[in-house]
User: Fold Seryl-tRNA synthetase from Methylobacterium persicinum.
Amino acid sequence: MDSLPALDPDASAEAIPGSAAAEAPTFLDRLFDAGLLVRTGVDGLYGRSGAFESVVDALDRLISRLGGEDGAEVMRFPPGMSRPAFERSGYLKGFPHLAGTVHSFCGNEADHARLLACVEAGTDWTEKQAATDIVLTPAACYPLYPTAAARGPLPEGGLLFDLQSYCFRHEPSLEPTRMQMFRMREYVRMGSPEEVLAFRELWLDRGTTMMAGLGLPLAVDLANDPFFGRAGKMLANNQRNQNLKFELNVPVNSVEKPTACLSFNYHQDHFGTTWGLTQADGNVAHTACVGFGLERITLALLRHHGLDLAQWPADVRSTLWG
Amino acid sequence: MDSLPALDPDASAEAIPGSAAAEAPTFLDRLFDAGLLVRTGVDGLYGRSGAFESVVDALDRLISRLGGEDGAEVMRFPPGMSRPAFERSGYLKGFPHLAGTVHSFCGNEADHARLLACVEAGTDWTEKQAATDIVLTPAACYPLYPTAAARGPLPEGGLLFDLQSYCFRHEPSLEPTRMQMFRMREYVRMGSPEEVLAFRELWLDRGTTMMAGLGLPLAVDLANDPFFGRAGKMLANNQRNQNLKFELNVPVNSVEKPTACLSFNYHQDHFGTTWGLTQADGNVAHTACVGFGLERITLALLRHHGLDLAQWPADVRSTLWG
Assistant:
């Protein structure tokens, strides 16, 4: 369903379908037609045009400016992480269905001939692929925790990191905001409960101000992660009851199901305990992160200000490109 | 072996081991110790510091400036591509051992319980992972060809594209220049044989000038891809005999085995035929690409100018950061 009404008549540079929604091209189709996203034949896997990337890059710089005074340590991980670290992280307990393991051919020349025969015949050639030591990164901060823990106890006052990477989630979808491969920018705070909660409050403020300044209608809502199965329902309820996760939502695909563009997560001592990460005083460290969905914010801007970047409101353009 | 002599005494800001090489820390160790690369526990999979990334970003911008007048269409693909497109590309014929397929859990709650029991027991939980529709991108240009072919015949004069993405090759190594996940910047030319060969000549010149301007010792050599198996030897010989691939090599890990930092590839009609890509006159299109290994060039700079970016020669710093 593609039924976002024009929330602001002045911002309806892009034609937003009303009652004729059923016949109108979807937002995804219009992104393809405008050349902003590029089809690959796989739902949720798209190429990006130079114009699309110019927005992603501008957002990345804007987020750097917002956090620029905080002295975060910049670290950039590739789109995959160590499988042993991934296994230990606990991700498989909550989200086995979203993870992507990387597999490779480890056979000899006869195996290779069989593989090519399968490809030729259109039958399954992937069964013999063996798992490598690499799993695709599910969220930009997952490779960070073991790295930080390896340095020893946190210094007095804790630590702050600045991350960005491509992430993978296996959830093929026709909603352009639900990509299988997308970029997440993050700030991650490690320290005492008070320090990390103050960090989360700060970024709830900053993130809300940033998105309002970009002319986007938004709501901050209590949220939960998409845990797997029936047991996952309980985990999701716990997460909500403890106010651990907030999301900043913007209507993109529809008003009824707005899109989480930023998320603010308090992990309590989950990663501290998992990785043996301690505060300067020896207590287990608490952690929190703020995550920015760079493609999602870009899509929100395209939805609300139209597909032609040159026609975006002057103040939005000025915020992004100075 | 880590035996690079100081090729230019003025550029030996970084201690380069001489006869005491056997006892000296490796280049990789020194990169870890300086915090430029970050251990993940997997050979060839590393985090990057902010300083390392500042070089990668500067190189990316420098390459954009060099090609800025050519009117290339910017396109950015995520680090994975469509599996059907990958199968059709022919990559599995030459390089089955380097490819990385992405697999996911597709079971129910009972399967999930078994998976977690395997993880807990330290036994293999990956066997039941099923191949998704995504394969990790082996070279930045692989997702481009089907995309370009879907547009129909090339216009008069052909097309030129500007690409960059993380790529994957399953070749765990302790040489820092042989990463499993790394970024490749590319320009890709599609057109007549004359057009694409002229493009390759132009970039052989530009690339050589660029690298010399960065104070790097270099050699341009005829090369071949690392084809698999005995049949691959013949493919490699053919590639050499036809002068299809050149590499711009810089000593990084050693003088004896210099590192290919740029590569210049003429594919003849391989991709044109594979994807039904034709020239404006109906003839099958030829293609060529120039690829820049962004981490490799960064490592070459660190090796030759030292691990402290602030101490790099003024002209190199000025070329990179203006």
Notes: Chain A touches chain B through 72 residues (CB under 8 Å).
